[in-house]
Amino acid sequence: MPLKIYNTLTGSVDELVPGGTRKEQVSDYPSVTIYSCGPTVYSFAHIGNFRTFVFNDFLRRHLKFRGFKVNHAMNITDVDDKTIAGARAEGISLEKYTARYTDIFMEDLKTLNIEPVEHLPKATDSIDSMIDIIKQLHDKGYLYEKEGSLYFSIAKFNGYGRMSRLDTREIKSGLRYDTDSYGKDDVRDFALWKAPKENEVSWETPYGRGRPGWHIECSAMIRKIFGTTIDIHTGGVDLIFPHHENEIAQSEAAYGETFVRHWIHVEHLLVNGSKMSKSLGNYYTLRDLLEKGYSPRSIRYLLISAHYRKQFNFTLEGITQADQALDRIDNLIVRLSDIKKEAAPTPELRKLADSMISGFTDAVDDDLNISRGLGVFFEFIHAVNTLISDDKLSRADIDAVVEALKKLDAVLGFIFIKDASKADRDEAWIESMIQERLQAKKVRNFARADEIRNLLTAQGIILEDTKDGTRWKLK
RNA sequence: GGCGCCGUACCCAAGUGGCUAAGGGAGAGGUCUGCAAAACCUUUAUGCAGCGGUUCGAAUCCGCUCGGCGCCUCCA
Fold it and tell me: What residues pair up with A151 in beta bridges, in sequence order?
């Protein structure tokens, strides 16, 4: 079964064909080239931003799981109005200012168990490629200059607005003007290169001093890193227009070849029914949530668990529910490791594990339907639990389950990461308390047994009495 | 005003023409237990916002109505 993903450009669920030519074997394909719109490093990213980044990670992990090679770039926007304003407000250099938020962002990615991508270019390192685009556009007559800024003329580009289906629309009249729209020939024309303002960073170019417009950096980096048409470009839905539409226009006008084959856009995270955004102030940063005691693992689970093309209402209760779902996974692992029976492996289990993996793969291959995939996974957990309860599994079966879980975790990235480690606790002491309690129970000194249990509970340690003994876990 | 998406149980969420409407949380019952807790098992929608229509057959297609959201402006 081929891997199919919704393509914003065509408006349909299309098979992913890296390199543009269909092959017999997945291994015959060239690396899947992916570009993801990254953050503007002017402050902390919020959890809505991370929905997209977690999605990017899920996508690349699934591609690798399916046997594709992946070559993935994500940009860091380190020069724009907000970063310039932020640096100025603190009286430090733009570099120093953006380095701080870049570091924070990278830490947050790591916290969420997001894999590093192959390329992490900064806008300010790609100025030469931007100038090349401008040169091409200049030579081909797509740009004009107004008051020292260079604009792209969308009227000259055939097919502008194809992806956002904007071409038939009228931009609503009476919209407020932003400072850049001043003097443009068409309101939709966009700045490629902005005239320098006083005390602002700027670069020298053959077309005058200035700094990059927003859209050009992505086109420039893609050109610089991948050279030609790439397979996948991802970002939030809010970038479809105008950002991605403008990228297409300037890249295809400059180089005369298809820019991106497959556009993938992630829907918004909502809070109380409206879009989470900095300007509305209704946002949580990752660090806000960690301070409240929620685990990165639960947050990753929550963000990944809803289908990427559906708006998702974010709630704290949702994180708690995610946490409970993860408990169910953890409990399976604990019960497995407690199996004592020695016997030959159960063929039934191997079959169960294989069909779980293929069911999961089919679900995720179908436009990354993670919700269905998780359903398959939890049905498997249920089935294995039943086998354990019926005493049908032996120690020889543990590996088959763990192996299957590891395969899944290569895609999900939340099964085997641990937040609070048992090793952080004084295990020997806990074990001794458990032994003392068992002794007390034996001589029917239940008051002492309960006292010990309460003492441990107060420290966040939960005792589980099973017929094979007592085990403990952290709350 | 233009374009688009969504409305499935107490909550979250799959399913987009055809067996008994996945899965997670919560609730209820059970197993285990000195009692608990935890864990596991069982269970919870004759119905899929409402009303019409198409069809042998619709949550799924079409129309209308109601409700919510997004984009059209910096934004993941």
Answer: A144, A191
d(CA A19, CA A296): 36
Positions of chain B reached by protein Cβ under 7 A:
1-6, 11-15, 22-26, 32-42, 68-76
Q: For residue A96, give every residue at least 6 positions away whose Cβ sits within 8 Å of its Cβ, in sequence order, or none.
A: A87
A75 and A185 inside one domain: yes
Q: How far is it, in rounded angstroms, from Cα A299 to Cα A290?
A: 9
Tens digits of per-residue pLDDT, A245-264? Answer: 999 999 999 999 999 999 99
Same domain, A202 and A72: yes
| Residue A193, amino acid | W
Give the model confidence (pLDDT) of A18-37 as tens digits: 999 999 999 999 999 999 99
Same domain, A177 and A114: yes
Q: Which nucleotide lies closest to A471 by the C1' atom and the CA atom?
A: B38
Q: Which among A118, A82, A76 has a CA at the least distance from the CA of A99?
A: A76
Query: What is d(CA A449, CA A465) in angstroms, rounded to the nearest whole number?
Result: 12
CATH number for the domain including A380? Answer: 1.20.120.640
The interface predicted TM-score (ipTM) is 0.95
CA distance A45 to A97: 15
C-alpha–C-alpha distance, residues A267 and A162, integer Å: 20
Residues A224-233: tens digit of each pLDDT: 999 999 999 9
